[in-house]
Amino acid sequence: MGDIAEDQTTFYSNAEDYWKDVPPTVDGMLGGYGSISSIDINGSKAFLKTFLGVGEGQTGTGCALDCGAGIGRITKRLLLPLFQTVDMVDVTREFLDKAKPYLGEESQRVGNYFCCGLQEFEPEGGRYDVIWIQWVIGHLTDDHLIEFLRRCQKALRPNGLIVIKDNVSYEGVVPDEVDSSVCRDLEIVRSLVGRAGLRIVREEQQTNFPKEIYQVHTLALR
Ligand SMILES: C[S@@+](CC[C@H](N)C(=O)[O-])C[C@H]1O[C@@H](n2cnc3c(N)ncnc32)[C@H](O)[C@@H]1O
Predict the structure, then answer these.
(1) Ranges under pLDDT 70 in the chain
(2) Closest CA to 203 of 188, 216, 185, 184
(3) Concatenated DSSP letters of 10-43
(4) Cα(185)–Cα(8) distance, integer angstroms
(5) How many A from CA of 21 to the centre of ligand 1?
(6) Is 25 in the pocket of ligand 1 (CB under 6 A)?
(7) 98 alpha carbon to ligand 1 midpoint, in Å?
(8) Which domains does the chain carry?
(9) Rg of the chain (C-alpha set)
C-alpha cells in the first residue's frame, strides 16, 4: 500500500473514531454550537423554499436525501416539513440509531437509514428532488467529493437540486486534526463542484452566526 492510500485510510478511520465518541445530540452535531441550530435551519428554509413548488422548472417535494445526517437535526426541522419522504445517510451507526427516537412520530416518513461513508455511497438513480449535504464535505478527499457529487447528479429527479452548506476557510485548505477533516476556501469548493460537472445556480452566505466560527456558505447545484 502506498503512502497516499494509507493516509487516506487513516483520514477516514480517524474521523469515524472521532464521531463514535460524540454524544448523539444537537450540540454534538454542531460541535458545541447547538444554540445556532435555529438560525441555521431558518436560513436553509428560506434558501430552499425559493426552489420548491409547482410550475415550470420548480423542484418537486417528493423525496430528499440528508447526507452526513447525524441524528437527523436537518431531517427533522428542514426536510421532513417540506418533503413527503426523507432518506438519511451517515457513517456513524450510533447517530442513525438515535434518529428514530429523536424524530418521533415523523420518523415514519424516513424511507431509508443508510449507514455508509459518502465516499462509498451510491444513491439510487433518479430518486431525489433534493440532496442536502451539510457540514460533511470536509470529511471527503477532493477526488471522493467529486465522484460523490457526480453520483448525486445521477440520483436527481427532473429539476432536482443538490445543496452544499458548509464552512469555508479564508484561504486554502485548513486541516483539522481533531475530527480528521479539512476546511476549504470558497474558490476551491467552487472548482471541485465544476470538476464534478455541476453548475452553481445560487450561492449565499449564512448570516447571524457567531463571529468566531468559519463563514458558512450555501451553494445550490444542478
Ligand atoms: C458536523 S456533523 C453534521 C451533522 C448534520 N449534517 C447536521 O448539520 O446536523 C458531521 C456528520 O458527518 C458524519 N460523517 C463524518 N464522516 C462521514 C463520511 N465519510 N460519510 C458520511 N458521514 C460522515 C458524522 O458521523 C456526523 O454525523
Answers:
(1) 1-2
(2) 216
(3) HHHHHHHHHHHTS-SSHHHHTTT-GGGHHHHHHH
(4) 21
(5) 13
(6) no
(7) 14
(8) 3-221 (3.40.50.150)
(9) 16
